[in-house]
UniProtKB/TrEMBL annotation:
Keywords: Ribonucleoprotein, Ribosomal protein, RNA-binding, rRNA-binding. It comes from Yimella lutea. GO terms for cellular component: cytosolic large ribosomal subunit. This is Large ribosomal subunit protein uL18. InterPro entries: Ribosomal_L18 (IPR057268), Ribosomal_uL18_bac-type (IPR004389), Ribosomal_uL18_bac/plant/anim (IPR005484).
């Protein structure tokens, strides 16, 4: 097989998400001019990174695990929107204006869409 990463066929939700993510990653790649904003979502938290794929480097990251967001009152969707706004502020400080959005194989709804909305409100171009 030409692909270095081979996902074992399984009927689990995680395997299905991995298949969707690898299918998405064939088309979405981050460059130095427009890095990739990747979302990782668990049942309780969200983790977002801005990655330059040409250098294989994480430029900026934010998550709900951080102390100021752990104390934030609100549901998971509201916290996800705050993570998007925080990431946008950090990206602006790092000189990043535009990113390519990688939803990580998740459906673009709920917390994933809230992260994107928060990043747009923070001034990032998706």
């Amino acid at each position: 097989m030409a692909n270095a990463r081979i996902v074992k066929r399984s009927n689990s939700k995680a395997a299905a998400r991995n298949r969707r993510h690898f299918r998405l990653r064939k088309r979405v790649s981050g460059t130095t001019a427009r890095p990739r904003m990747v979302v990782n979502r668990s049942s309780r938290h969200v983790f977002v990174q801005i990655v330059d794929d040409t250098e294989s480097k994480t430029l900026v990251s934010a998550s709900t695990m951080e102390a100021d967001l752990r104390s934030f009152d609100g549901d998971k969707t509201a916290k996800a929107k705050k993570v998007g706004e925080l990431l946008a502020a950090r990206a602006k400080d790092a000189g990043i204006e535009a990113v390519v959005f990688d939803r990580g194989g998740n459906r673009y709804a709920g917390r994933v869409a809230a992260i994107a909305d928060g990043a747009r409100e923070g001034g990032l171009t998706l």
